[in-house]
Amino acid sequence: MKWKYATAGWIAGFCFVVVVFLGLALAQEPGKRQSSYMPVNLDEDFPATMSRMKAAKPDLMKRQMELLNQRYDLSNRPAKDATMSRGKPLQEGVRVKLPKGITWDQLAAMSPEEIKEKDLFPAGFMPLPFPNHPEGGMLFPTYVIDEINKLEGRDLTRFDLDFDIPDHFLPEYPPPLYLTTRPDLGDVSQGKVVNLVNYYELFNGILNPKQLEGLRLLLTPFPQQQFNQTADRRSALPSRGVACLDCHVNGHTNRATHLVGDIRPQEYRHRINTPSLRGVNIQRLFGSQRALKSVEDFTEFEQRAAYFDGDPVIATKKGVNILDRGSQVHFMAEFQSILDFPPAPKLGIDGRLNPKKASAAELRGEALFFGKGQCASCHTPPYYTDNTMHNMQTERFYTPRMINGMMASHDGPIKTFPLRGVKDSPPYMHDGRLLTLEDTVEFFNLVDEVKLTEQEKKDVVAFLRTL
């Protein structure tokens, strides 16, 4: 009997050890639990990876475009009387689609709780996922890829994804480039995409030596997560990388998109469309959500971390560019700090409309902007930003849900973007979810619960076009 008990005890003890060992092994096995780090070692060779992702691309893009078409009217309907600074027509009208049987006035009359309970928050007002959210990465509009390839023989095509938002909703390309130091010159880019081939010819004699060197560095490609020499990339051929002004073209933006680096796990990361660098000299926070405290911090962060999805392990593997803070970062920041907003001939030196130059609708819109619409509580003149962060808590209006691999739950604090030159920077919000100024006015009318009338909304849009 003692032998039986001893044997049974030994067997039970052995089984317990095995269970504990297997439990620990499973807990430590890659892929069995979430991690703050991305995988570094490849378990699939590059040809197999590219073949697999190329095959998956049509279905991924079909799914993303179906989502956009469900959310928005994507037709090309340019405004007849409103253009960007170089003449590209603005897209006009509300493009966000409403739930069936609901009007904007009916929706605005409801409380956030009622909208959430009835699931009536417009899908186009919810966070916008990246085309392949679990994958993420830097992604460029096709016309940008074509131009950089033509100018420098550098291909930013991804074999796994294409850009999703149609070209007619994007900023003009190339955008004009204005300098705070030389307003007399107007567009110093002369209608060209500033690049490594032409920057010296365009700017020698206009910039000082530090600014000229800073511009050269901003135009120099460096390794990046998707574009580099390793097999762990998303370009068919090894790549020289990406330059700062590939996204911030001519110191503005082409709305190239990415995922922010400050959130894990992946499904909670927010899509971000490249913000403009115009007027960066008057800003006190940098990046749409990361709240970097100086343009030097922003410049250094981009190269050390944002280029590699915020993962220093990946950065080391792929070729991080360690910039010297005292010279290179300083020179780059010096150039960025003289990028100016486009001219606004109807505004006075205080940023307010000149009554002698503005139309009746624009003046009514200004009054609403500073009054009933409550816009100026965050967007204060002359640059129409309060240089701080705000959390609009849009999650008051909907139940969190998974959308194409992204968990739509909350946006968190977002910096107040300057509205000077806002007509040149569609689509709007940090993730580009609002395609037009009309969409943007409807969004804030609902979220801020200010209850503008139809005519009042049109007047606010008219005012925004003057900034």
Strand content: 5-15%
Count of β-strands: 8
Total of domains: 1
The total count of helices amounts to: 14
- Poorly predicted tracts of residues: 1-30
Shape: globular
CATH architectural name: Orthogonal Bundle
Tell me roughly what share of residues is in helical segments: 25-40%
Order of helical and strand elements: HHEEHHHHHHEEHHHHEEEEHH
According to CATH, the homologous superfamily is Cytochrome c-like domain
- Decide which structural class fits the backbone: mainly alpha
How far is the N terminus from the C terminus? 93 Å
Structural account:
It is globular, with a radius of gyration of 25 Å. It is mainly alpha-helical. It has a two-stranded antiparallel sheet with strand order 1-2. It has a two-stranded antiparallel sheet with strand order 3-4. Strands 5-8 form a two-stranded antiparallel ribbon. The longest helix is centred in the N-terminal third of the chain and has 27 residues. The protein has a single domain, classed as Cytochrome c-like domain (Cytochrome Bc1 Complex, Chain D, domain 2, Orthogonal Bundle), CATH 1.10.760.
State the gist of this model.
This protein has 467 residues and is mainly alpha-helical.
Attribute tags:
two-stranded antiparallel ribbon; disordered N terminus; 8 strands; 33% helix; mainly alpha; globular; Cytochrome Bc1 Complex, Chain D, domain 2; 467 residues
